[in-house]
UniProtKB/TrEMBL annotation:
InterPro entries: Pepsin-like_plant, PEPTIDASE_A1, Peptidase_aspartic_dom_sf, Plant_Aspart_Prot_A1, TAXi_C, TAXi_N. It comes from the Eukaryota. This is Peptidase A1 domain-containing protein. One of its GO terms (biological process) is proteolysis. Residues 1-19 form the signal peptide. One of its GO terms (molecular function) is aspartic-type endopeptidase activity. The keyword Glycoprotein applies. Keywords: Aspartyl protease, Glycoprotein, Hydrolase, Protease, Signal. SUPFAM superfamilies: Acid proteases. Belongs to the peptidase A1 family.
Length: 415
């Protein structure tokens, strides 16, 4: 079950990195990216302890880092050597700017990279551009992160490019294993400081597998293309302009089917709505940092009812309230596919192995949950999230220029 808990925590991590950091970094000029152009960046991706982690190097001479791929975040960050002992354990040595000839701090009066929103606390011409994020929802402090913005040369294979990124020096999390040994996060959202924006590109692709022995690739730039064969393309929903919603990848989910049975869910249940001047809730986002799927509660209730109806004889009695449904692992072949229906007529078919996960005791369990479970609050408790497990063994292409995301069945462990 530890795996599922981590997945839920990641939901907080994603929204909060987005929310607070992007707030701090608001009013950036759209072209913070003019730092660099690079033809393409290709980085290996491996599965480890709940995350898809990519590897590249920072600095001159280059220092290796391992970063969790997070399409829900608009910032690249890594723990920095000054972090010790206030950071969490990672497998590689921390990035040390003092050992890099190409490392620079970004001063807080740099209007291109540091936020004007931050100027109130800009204490002088050469003061650092401080970034901070905190999650204190309901008095439970889940995590707390602080650092400063720097620039350095990132090396992807043979390509080198100068990137602005967070050098974190203080990270507190309620679960120390939260990063799974990685060094930080690589944000691939739509915001100006995400890796894809800074590289000056509008396309990227990945192909996730949870095969621990396999290496797949994150490809950023024009060489991110799908192969021959059927493709399901879904247009992105236009983002709200407020932070952090402007960095997320929203898709127009309107309904679900279990096998051939269309569930009776009002389409409006999936709509995005403004809950207050700075708060958007609802909608459906694609994420890579959350492993499982969270459905808006009314859709989840319809799903569980239909799954129970169709699967009744094979369902095992459960020992915990979470996950609700399990079958013997040899019975997973009897689980019908889950079909996601999108607004423009596209259907994305998730086979059983993309929404039922092998867990302990030879059980395979449905890893789709209600967004409202576990006392989450707005906006996450009403938002539908399509996590990384649902995207496994699909080659996924984000084409921000064209405004769509495409999925193609693939053997990701051999790509
Ligand atoms: C901000 O910092 C970047 C990176 O060091 C630099 O290229 C840019 O010229 C700076 N902009 C300003 C306005 O100082
Ligand atoms: C990964 O490789 C190890 C060592 O070669 C092997 O024992 C293990 O079964 C492999 N795991 C998978 C999922 O293929
Ligand atoms: C949700 O909140 C209620 C009331 O505060 C509490 O009794 C319950 O244990 C909480 N559930 C979870 C899963 O945290
Ligand atoms: C979501 O949380 C808010 C409080 O933040 C609550 O008012 C609302 O009823 C919750 N929605 C659901 C579907 O539980």
């Amino acid at each position: 079950m530890a795996r599922l808990l981590v997945a839920l925590v990641c939901a907080y991590l994603t929204t909060t990195v987005g929310a607070s950091l992007r707030l701090e970094l608001s009013r950036l000029e759209a072209k913070a990216s003019s730092l660099a152009t690079v033809r393409r960046a290709i980085a290996p991706v491996r599965w480890r302890q709940g995350w898809h982690v990519t590897e590249y190097r920072i600095g001159d001479p280059p220092q290796p880092v391992q970063s969790i791929i997070d399409v829900g975040s608009g910032l690249v960050w890594t723990q920095s050597a000054t972090c010790h002992p206030r950071c969490i354990s990672q497998d590689l040595d921390c990035y040390n700017p003092d050992r890099s000839r190409s490392a620079h701090s970004v001063p807080c009066d740099n209007r291109t990279l540091c936020a004007a929103a931050h100027a109130g606390r800009c204490t002088g011409h050469n003061a650092a551009c401080t970034i901070m994020a905190k999650n204190g929802a309901e008095g439970i402090e889940l995590w707390d992160l602080a650092g400063d913005l720097g620039v350095d040369v990132f090396t992807f294979g043979s390509e080198k490019v100068t990137i602005a990124f967070g050098r974190m020096r203080e990270i507190k999390l309620f679960k120390p294993e939260i990063l799974g040994g990685a060094s930080g996060v690589i944000g691939l959202g739509k915001g100006p400081l995400s890796l894809v924006s800074q590289l000056g590109h509008t396309k990227f692709s990945y192909c996730f597998t949870e095969d621990v022995n396999a290496t797949s690739h994150l490809v950023i730039g024009s060489s991110a293309v799908l192969g021959d064969g059927p493709v399901t393309s879904i247009p992105f929903v236009v983002n709200p302009s407020e932070e952090p919603y402007n960095t997320l990848y929203y898709v127009p989910l309107i309904g679900l089917s279990v096998g051939n049975v269309r569930l009776a869910i009002p389409t409006a249940a999936f709509n995005m709505r403004r809950a207050s001047p700075w708060l958007w809730t609802g909608g459906t986002i694609i994420d890579s940092c959350i492993e499982t799927m969270f459905l808006v509660d009314v859709a989840y209730k319809a799903l569980r009812q239909e799954v129970a109806r169709q699967m009744d004889s094979s369902l095992l009695p459960t020992t915990s309230e979470w996950p609700e449904y399990c079958v013997d692992r040899w019975d997973v072949g009897a689980v019908p596919p889950l079909v996601l229906h999108f607004g423009d007529g596209a259907d994305l078919v998730l086979p059983a192995t993309n929404y039922w996960m092998p867990l302990a005791d030879d059980r395979t369990c449905m890893v789709v949950y209600s967004s409202a479970e576990r006392n989450t609050t707005l906006p996450m408790n009403e938002t539908t999230v399509i996590g990384s497990y649902m995207q496994q063994d699909m080659h996924v292409l984000y084409d921000i220029g064209k405004g769509e995301i495409s999925f193609q069945a693939a053997h990701c462990s051999s790509m």
